[in-house]
Write a structure and sequence with these properties.
4 helices; binds 5-O-phosphono-beta-D-ribofuranosylamine; six-stranded mixed sheet; alpha/beta; two-stranded antiparallel ribbon
Amino acid sequence: MNRRVGVLISGRGSNLQALIDAIAAGRLDAAIALVRELRARDVGLVCLAGFMRLVGTPLIDAFPNRILNIHPSLLPAFPGLDAQKQAIEHGVKVSGVTVHLVTAALDGGPIVVQRAVPVMPGDTADRLAARILEEEHRAYPDAVRLILDGGWRVEDRRFVAG
Ligand code: GRF
């Protein structure tokens, strides 16, 4: 597919940086086309990278199965805000990261990549978040590569790799 990637962020931007670094290092064959004004710039794939708002139906309809989001938990556990704090408060022993296709359901689209991250004794939400973030920076470029390379399909709510 079209390998020009649009990235939406609203915060710190470290996942955007991880994508830029993976491209620069030759680990991901893609181009960051822009961070906004997607269609006008012929974007093929939209990456939400710390975009802390719901994506509206017009964008989802304009890019069906062409919007990725990264979430700092093993979905469907702990959707929404403060996923790492939710994990600590629940007392889970393992959390992680999920990269998924965006649908109208909050953090509910087909799962492309998931990686587990252990919760250590005495972890705070911040310490867990930092450990998960390291895994996010590996998982997101991997997921973008999978999507851009094609040969996958969505069956019911399942992402099936080629
Ligand atoms: C990440 O933890 C991401 O999973 C969540 O928001 C955070 C964004 O971090 N949705 P950054 O702006 O990419 O550093």
